[in-house]
Protein 1
Amino acid sequence: MKTLIQTILIGAIVGVCSCGDTDTQNEAQSQSGIPEQRGQSGVQDPQSKPNVVQVAVGSKDHTTLVTAVKAAELVDALSNAGPFTVFAPVNAAFDKLPTGTVEDLLKPEKKEALAEILQYHVYVGNLSDALLMDGQQYNMVAGGNISISEKEGKKFVNGTAQIIASVPASNGIIYVIDGVLLPPKK
């Protein structure tokens, strides 16, 4: 019994001490001007393969998508273990939308609509290239299905967005597409 109490006390002391160190570290980061990151996106692990968000952040072709993911507050969700399959539109895909659409969706009052559109680009699970066969349908996070089609050896999502590349990530796979997917009207 005495050993159990000692173990509990030692554990509590270690817990309190380590919490204090973390708080001091967070405080130092805040004072240095670097914004504190909370949640899964704040985990720093330079030895592991980057997750889907980190891959997108590192791509010059996905700056609009990254801005939208941040505005919709989906960074932490997409940084989790997954696995996720993300259909990631390039900047040029967003440019094809009617003028002002992206700017309007980035407004704080449009966060839910933006999140719904972005979640229509995410499937929970790892869809390998072999699973993306003509006629297949997959239910996306936002609800609603996407369909895969093949034309002249090229794969398309919903008949319009061509899959132009695939990039593996630690928590899934990214398929780079040349169009923005719009969820079905509810």
Protein 2
Amino acid sequence: MAADPAGPSAVRFLGVDTSLRGTGYGVIEAAGNRYRYVESGRVRNAPTLPVALCVTRIHDTVRDLIQRTRPAAVAIEGVFIAKNARSSLRLGEARGGVLAACGGCGVEVYEYPPRRVKQAVVGAGGAAKEQVLRMMVHLLGAPPDISEDEADALAIALCHVQTRTSIPGLAPKPL
């Protein structure tokens, strides 16, 4: 896709790849079957930062991002069962910060399993993170130096856009 703006009919979507210590986010615009990178970033929380402050930083960043970019919807990666119960709990706490920010801003949230996201953007559910990153650079015009967390967030947003428009009547339901 060309790097020019998508135009007045463009709609923005926010994707979030949630993690307590490194939450990635990405905003894309969609106009018909054209997609464009808007911005991306990462909320980094030091390992020494208390969990409550990590969740607050994630919440505040997502809230501010929603207020500034005005996405039509937010897409997040679905919960997966980690081998370590503590890891699953920490992921749930981070997701809580994202969900609270979205709810407070009145934006609907949709979730997609990791394999479905990879299938939508790479064509293979078992794709490597590097493949996802390369596709986000290719499909959206994202900078080649974005982090894997940012690329994953952009892929989640793109998966939502493609799912929402490709299967009439079977669109995902918000959380």
Protein 3
Amino acid sequence: MTDAERLCGWIRADAWRMAALRKARSQGLPDWWLAAGFVRNLVWDRLHGYASSTPLNDIDLVYFEPANPHALIDREHEASLNHATHLPWSVKNQARMHHRHGHAAYTSIEEALSVWVECETAVGVTLDDDERLRLLAPLGIESLMAGRVTSNPYHGDREVFRRRVSAKGWRHRWPRLEIEDFPGGS
């Protein structure tokens, strides 16, 4: 079994995550994915043998629609999802996120994810109408599945990585993580 097959199996076995994927799909957004902690935390919980999932601060729904990059649309989708599920959704059209980072305009959702701070956070999953899961991992999933946390060389700011690792408290929640080049890491 490949890492991707194992990861998709973990997602499929998680009723809560499958319900979230179905709810995200119902929004009808183009090229949408549930990403970041939605995938990453599940893997780290499984690698640590935790019986229950770590609660998420939010559910990151990302999509790519360059023709309509208005933040108001994201807020409308968030409100709809939050109301329907009573869960904390964060909806972001990645077609506009280059402004936040001072980058040239992204040409795809894959390019947008490829500059996220940690390689292990830049992983998304989507659910098609036939209930098939697909993964998007422009930087791969090998380090995620190995329990490592690595700075994305394409992000370009290692200090942001260091601050995030410290602020997120990942080492406290998942003590066996190998955190790259970080005091108290590995």
